[in-house]
């Protein structure tokens, strides 16, 4: 009997691909994980190839249906046809409808209401041209775009539209101004952090601000729905040069848009409940990544069960597209007993060993018989641990397959993790993975959350106990880990519980600032070498590296530039006179770092052969101790790796 094979593609920002075989997700991956560029925009050719290879398909000729979400100006279908695809091609069904399919079918709920909130879908004219279903009454202008959609599932079979709101673009400069909750939040993020994709940072900054310092409302509540002011951002004073967490306007703006978002989402949830009578709610679209707001829904609305798609942003549209294509082709909805979010393929022992062997002068890999016990001991001993197993998580949250872990008890762990491992802003909070049967002992959580999509209150009696996962407002984003959790992550937390009496660990995504979450063993090792992780667990091995500050003979170690690091000296022109040189290095993420003249001199001499002692000898007036201290600083900043000497000593 032939199989039904459907490929879903998101070919816009947060590009991704998902391959569905007979209604089951065979594999799915965001393009950013493979291209190593966050929020990758465009046709996800690497992700498509990854999906085909993982499923054992030679090319697109084996696929029955391809469903594409793309910018209106693009023609991804042409690329797919040129690659040999001859089957049923569906382009740009309603963007919100694809979000809704993902939410509905992944939830396994029978009669949920579905709320889709994001920046914007595409315009009515495009959907009408593509003959998309479930558009509702035509808006006044064909160029109006989706800003909010409500659906409900009737009789466990049919998704139906309840209401859709459309909006017109106000402007694209200054700021992308569109009357949606997602864009309201995004323009604030662009003002505060320089890019609209930094909404997660804005959410983390909000508790430090005072929303009352922006007294004028952004959202008006009318009988016809929400009216969102798009001009408010144009009345704000120019951004200062201060870091966001030190700038009053930035902190207060973050608090303002968070408060406006919370009120609006709760209002819409109550309205949707009144319109449908549903007891269960699914949420998707980029606003669904606001876990603080999600955490209020069960507490402050009549819904008694909530499912938020783990990949609520546009990468999740690829999964929705595949599900929509399957339903369209077969006339049947998929039915999953349970949904997990591990859609990447697993890597073979040979692949992992090759990744380690290619870096054998940089790392020390030793097999471990009691993997979870040793990892739990490392965490209890205060080490930062990289944890890599199985297929990768699809969404932005690390759920125990591509995670960085540490002990949540010491108050300083959060600051050390931000400064030394993630290289990110000091105000950023961290999440906790907690054994599901113990969640009520530490958190005021109304429901389980295996996908880390809600923020809940930490019980006041436990705030000091788990200080590094307790945010400044007494909250924490949580992942509840059930007994049937895939992989050995559950057992690791159980072992940590046995050692310490604490049934939870601090869990953050396995990446550093500016980089996507690691996908491959090579990615994991590069990230491990380029930050201050202490230990990496990979393929049954405990992997360590050479560290200048702790090595017995650091002067014998051989420093080398971190992968893709470039260094440069710039001499300016001041009226014909050369200025003093300015020294910088650029990491693979594109971030520029200022260097001292001494640091530049040392980095310039690294050739993968000279030891630290050799570098000191090549620099007039330098002692070996001087060189060791400077290289240790460079290593802590992720700029150099250290190799053992050629003689292995």
From TrEMBL:
Per the record's keyword annotation, is Transferase included, yes or no? yes
| UniProt keyword Ubl conjugation present | no
Carbamoyltransferase domain span: 6-71, 251-323
Family annotation (Gene3D superfamilies): 3.30.420.40, Carbamoyltransferase, C-terminal domain
Gene Ontology molecular function, alphabetical: transferase activity
Tell me which stretches of the chain form a coiled coil: none
Instruction: Provide this UniProt record's keywords sorted from A to Z.
Output: Transferase
Q: Where is the Carbamoyltransferase C-terminal domain?
A: 376-545
CDD domains per the UniProt record, alphabetical: ASKHA_NBD_TobZ_N (cd24098)
Q: Give the domain of life.
A: Bacteria
InterPro entries recorded: ATPase_NBD, Carbam_trans_C, Carbam_trans_C_sf, Carbtransf_dom, NodU/CmcH_Carbamoyltrnsfr
Q: Which Pfam families match?
A: Carbam_trans_C, Carbam_trans_N
Please report the name of this protein according to its UniProt entry.
Carbamoyltransferase
| Protein family membership | Belongs to the NodU/CmcH family.
SUPFAM superfamilies for the chain:
Actin-like ATPase domain (SSF53067)
């Amino acid at each position: 009997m032939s199989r039904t094979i459907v490929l879903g593609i998101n070919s816009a920002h947060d590009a991704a691909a998902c391959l569905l075989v007979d209604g089951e997700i065979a594999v799915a991956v965001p393009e950013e994980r493979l291209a190593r560029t966050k929020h990758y925009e465009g046709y996800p050719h690497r992700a498509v190839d990854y999906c085909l290879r993982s499923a054992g398909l030679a090319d697109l000729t084996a696929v029955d249906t391809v469903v594409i979400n793309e910018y209106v100006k693009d023609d991804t279908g042409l690329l797919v046809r040129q690659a040999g695809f001859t089957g049923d091609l569906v382009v740009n069904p309603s963007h919100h409808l694809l979000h809704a399919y993902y939410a509905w079918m992944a939830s396994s709920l029978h009669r949920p209401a579905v709320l889709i909130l994001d920046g914007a879908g595409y315009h009515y004219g495009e959907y009408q041209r593509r003959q998309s279903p479930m558009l509702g009454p035509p808006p006044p202008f064909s160029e109006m775009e989706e800003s909010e959609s409500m659906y409900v599932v009737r009789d466990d079979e049919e998704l139906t539209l309840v209401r859709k709101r459309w909006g017109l673009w106000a402007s694209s400069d200054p700021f992308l101004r569109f009357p949606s909750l997602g864009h309201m939040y995004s323009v604030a993020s662009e003002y505060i952090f320089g890019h609209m994709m930094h909404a997660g940072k804005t959410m983390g900054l909000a508790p430090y601000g005072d929303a009352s310092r922006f007294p004028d409302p952004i959202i008006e509540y009318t009988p016809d729905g929400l009216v969102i002011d798009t001009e408010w951002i144009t009345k704000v004073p120019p951004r200062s040069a201060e870091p966001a967490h030190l700038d009053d306007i930035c902190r207060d703006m973050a608090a303002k848009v968070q408060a406006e978002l919370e009120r609006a989402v709760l209002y819409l949830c109550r309205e949707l409940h009144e319109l449908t009578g549903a007891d269960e709610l699914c949420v998707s679209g980029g606003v669904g990544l606001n876990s603080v707001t999600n955490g209020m829904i069960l507490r402050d609305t009549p819904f008694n069960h909530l499912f938020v798609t783990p990949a609520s942003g546009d990468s999740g549209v690829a999964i929705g597209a595949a599900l929509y294509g399957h339903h369209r082709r077969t006339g049947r909805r998929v039915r999953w007993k349970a949904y997990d979010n591990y859609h990447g393929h697993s890597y073979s022992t040979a692949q992992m060993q090759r990744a380690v062997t290619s870096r054998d002068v940089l790392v020390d890999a030793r097999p471990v018989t009691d993997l979870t016990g040793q990892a739990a001991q490392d965490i209890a001993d205060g080490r930062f641990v990289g944890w890599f197993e199985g297929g990768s998580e699809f969404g932005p949250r690390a759920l125990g397959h591509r995670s960085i872990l540490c002990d949540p008890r010491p108050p300083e762990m959060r600051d050390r993790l931000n400064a030394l491992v993630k290289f990110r802003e000091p105000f950023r909070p961290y999440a906790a993975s907690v054994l599901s049967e113990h969640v009520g002992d530490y958190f005021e959580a109304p429901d389980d959350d295996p996908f880390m999509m809600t923020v809940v209150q930490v019980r006041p009696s436990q705030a000091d106990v788990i200080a590094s996962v307790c945010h400044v407002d007494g909250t924490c984003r949580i992942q509840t880990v059930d007994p049937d959790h895939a992989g050995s992550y559950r057992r690791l937390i159980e072992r940590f519980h046995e050692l310490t009496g604490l049934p939870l660990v601090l869990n953050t995504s396995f990446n550093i600032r500016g980089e996507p979450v690691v996908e491959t063993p090579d990615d994991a090792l590069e990230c491990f070498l380029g930050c201050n992780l202490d230990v990496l667990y990979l393929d049954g091995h405990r992997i360590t590296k050479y560290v200048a500050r702790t090595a017995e003979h650091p002067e014998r170690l051989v420093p080398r530039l971190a992968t893709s690091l470039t260094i440069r000296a710039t001499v300016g022109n001041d009226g014909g006179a050369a200025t003093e040189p300015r020294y910088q290095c650029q990491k693979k993420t594109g971030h520029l770092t200022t260097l001292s003249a001494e640091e530049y001199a040392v980095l310039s001499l690294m050739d993968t052969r000279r030891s630290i002692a050799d570098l000191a000898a090549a620099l007039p007036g330098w002692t070996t101790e001087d060189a060791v201290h400077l290289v240790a600083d460079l290593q802590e900043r992720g700029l150099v790796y250290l190799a053992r000497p050629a003689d292995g000593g």
